Each structure stands twice: as structure tokens, then as C-alpha cells.
Amino acid sequence: MAGEPQADCLFCKIVAGEVPATIVHETETIVAFRDINPQAPTHVLVIPKVHYPDAATLAAAEPQVIADILREARTVAAGDDIEETGYRVVFNTGAGAGQTVFHAHLHVLGGRGLQWPPG
Ligand code: 5GP
Ligand code: ZN
């Protein structure tokens, strides 16, 4: 069923506590944890506890959870004290855009200058 945990999904395993992660915050609907291969001093992933392959699919099915994820970005930025200096939020969507884990996730990046457009 849509949204149900997938046995072969890394981020479902992090939600279930079966794979360790450095969790910075958790709510009823989302988990925020540090990226294992950080691209900036702050690099946190915010994921829904429910499984959808990407953000667009999640937004179509459970728009409130996308709102929870975006709200969490600000909480992460406040926690790492990067609200003033700025931060970037990214949903890579599709392999051609660099998505490698097909459980929706928001990247929150900051703590250094960020170029635009990205590579
Ligand atoms: P994507 O490329 O799909 O947008 O982002 C996936 C992110 O997940 C990458 O930035 C990658 O470093 C991160 N990642 C992959 N495996 C793990 C893991 O086991 N633990 C954590 N914390 N992050 C992971
Ligand atoms: Zn999953």
C-alpha cells in the first residue's frame, strides 16, 4: 500500500531504527538526521516516516507531510545557527538529478557559501 515501509529501503530502515543515523530531530511524521557524506558544514536530510519514492509523489498523496518537512528545514537551520547566513533546501527528483535513495528526502545545506546554479 502507498506509504507503507519497504523492506529494501535504506531510509525506511533508518525510520525503524534498524540502520543507525545521527538524528537531530524527530516528530510524529518526520525524521531529520545528518548526511553520512556531508557536502557542507550543515547537511541534514529530512525524511517522511512514510515511504514514497520522491517528494512529488509524497506531495500528491500526503501534502501535509511535505509541509511538515519544509517546516522542519527551519528548525534544522535554527538548531545549527545558520538562519542568518542562509541555507539551501533541495529535493533531488529522479536519477538524472542525482537522486540515489528512492525514499523522499529534503537536503538542508548551509554553513558555507553556496553557488548558484549548482553543478
Ligand atoms: P540523493 O542523492 O538521493 O538526493 O541523496 C541521498 C543522500 O543520502 C546522499 O547525500 C547520501 O550521502 C546520503 N546517504 C546515503 N546512505 C546514507 C546512510 O546510510 N546514512 C546517512 N545518514 N546518509 C546516507
Ligand atoms: Zn523507504
Automatic annotation (TrEMBL):
Residues 10-119 form the HIT domain. CDD domains: PKCI_related. A motif (Histidine triad motif) lies at residues 103-107. SUPFAM superfamilies: HIT-like. Pfam families: HIT. This is Histidine triad nucleotide-binding protein.
